[in-house]
């Protein structure tokens, strides 16, 4: 194989619109230093545009989109995004190599920076479609899927997975999975440091009940130093991310970045060497207003955007009043940008 383990390790097993912008100038490794997890019903294009006003450099992911939806559905609605959202990765759900390759080509034409295969979602609906975490039991198929996509596009193809499923949670099985998938051309693995129970736990419980095993992810990086290993799961702030980056290549932050988005404000300077001034929360609000006005003219309801910005003033004076005002008035017919400005008055900095 092209990659190898460290010598001291023992091997356990042998737009809104189409956009073709400039390729992001960050190396793959630097791009993944801090990224925001794909989250269903949360990381839509409105949320991504909002986050990009806080951080220019963190890598953003779409919600998971299935291959059948792309091949047979409304592609503009599913894949459209604003150019400002880049760098942006598309997460795909599927297990048919031919269909995944076709979707990868479509994604490349739309200007995405990365294709990520979901091998971590444990929901019953996903299992019925034979994708998500259940694919950990079929590493050869995952490798075939990765090889088909990598052969179809020039984009990096990455895999987001768990450390195990059900009783198949030994380190040897995880290492075997990584070895086989890497042989298909994957060089970046985003590892949710919990195993998944495919039966008996809801998706929410699968994010909370199985214990976090950061040691397993660190061992994987130690044993496969030429692979890029990104940690996901339980990271709540940039200080914790910095500690993980001492041993790993990158950190993916999920719900903490959604509920407290301003925690990303220092990420560009701290992890990417970007010394441009950080926007204040008020400046973020003001920068968002033209986008909101544009979307309202397109027929989008204010609530579709306002729901993503509730956490902007988390932990700040007036933060509760900000959330309450948006929750109460953004849902009303014909609600406009004045609702956001009125809410911001509770939080003058």
Automatic annotation (TrEMBL):
- Which key words are in the record? Flavoprotein, FMN, NADP, Oxidoreductase, RNA-binding, tRNA processing, tRNA-binding
Q: Which cofactor is essential here?
A: FMN
Q: Where is the active site?
A: 121
Q: Where is this site: Interacts with tRNA?
A: 118, 204, 207, 320, 323
Which SUPFAM superfamilies would you find in this protein's record? FMN-linked oxidoreductases
In what residue span(s) does the DUS-like FMN-binding domain sit?
36-335
Q: What is its EC number?
A: 1.3.1.91
List, alphabetically, the InterPro entries matched.
Aldolase_TIM, DUS-like_FMN-bd, DUS_fam, DusA, tRNA_hU_synthase_CS
State the source organism's domain of life: Bacteria
Q: What is the reaction catalyzed?
A: 5,6-dihydrouridine(20a) in tRNA + NADP(+) = uridine(20a) in tRNA + NADPH + H(+); 5,6-dihydrouridine(20) in tRNA + NADP(+) = uridine(20) in tRNA + NADPH + H(+); 5,6-dihydrouridine(20a) in tRNA + NAD(+) = uridine(20a) in tRNA + NADH + H(+); 5,6-dihydrouridine(20) in tRNA + NAD(+) = uridine(20) in tRNA + NADH + H(+)
Any idea which positions bind FMN? 38-40, 91, 160, 192, 232-234, 254-255
Instruction: Name the enzyme's class.
Output: oxidoreductase
NCBIfam families for this protein? PRK11815.1, yjbN
Family label: Belongs to the Dus family. DusA subfamily. Belongs to the dus family.
- What is the stated purpose of this protein? Catalyzes the synthesis of 5,6-dihydrouridine (D), a modified base found in the D-loop of most tRNAs, via the reduction of the C5-C6 double bond in target uridines. Specifically modifies U20 and U20a in tRNAs.
Q: What is this protein called?
A: tRNA-dihydrouridine(20/20a) synthase
Q: Which organism is it from?
A: Methylocaldum szegediense
Taxonomic lineage is: Bacteria, Pseudomonadati, Pseudomonadota, Gammaproteobacteria, Methylococcales
